[in-house]
Amino acid sequence: MQDDNHSLSTKAREILEDSSCNLYLSISSFWEITIKQSLGKLKLEYTLDELSGSCSANNIFILPVQISALNILKTLPFLHRDPFDRIIISTALDMGFNLISKDTKFHNYEVNIVW
Question: Which residues form the domain of 65?
């Protein structure tokens, strides 16, 4: 299931391949994938069920959206307009997680970015 994505940074790839790291993926990422697929903007070679199964098989935990993250979200400045990215940022802030992303707009927030 893992795409051999050559656009990943060396640091991001190291973290993703390190079995001692706890990895998390927001359910909002699945929501965004679903919307983009329904609009015809994203084609994948696998289903959401297969993606979820791959996450489980690779010890990637799928995080629900927590009320505590929504409380952070409502006070988050609108420096990034994408609603899915904003919930990912607020979740990382809420949980104290590092966030793997090459999105430069994420640096506008006080979240630890790895890339």
Answer: 10-114
113 — phi, psi (to 5°)? Answer: -105, 135
The pTM is what? 0.87
pLDDT at residue 2 is higher than 90? no
For position 3, what pLDDT does the model report? Answer: 55
Return phi, psi of residue 99, to 5°: -120, 125
Give the mean model confidence (pLDDT) for residues 79-87. 95
**Cβ neighbours around 39 below 10 Å, total:** 8
- Indicate whether 42 belongs to any domain: yes
Give a three-class secondary structure readout of 42-81: CCCCCCHHHHHHHHHHCCEEEECCCHHHHHHHCCCCCCCC
45: CATH: 3.40.50.1010
Given a contact cutoff of 8 angstroms between Cβ atoms, the answer to whether 93 and 72 are in contact is yes
* Backbone phi, psi, residue 29, to 5°: -65, -40
Question: What total of structural domains would you count in the chain?
Answer: 1
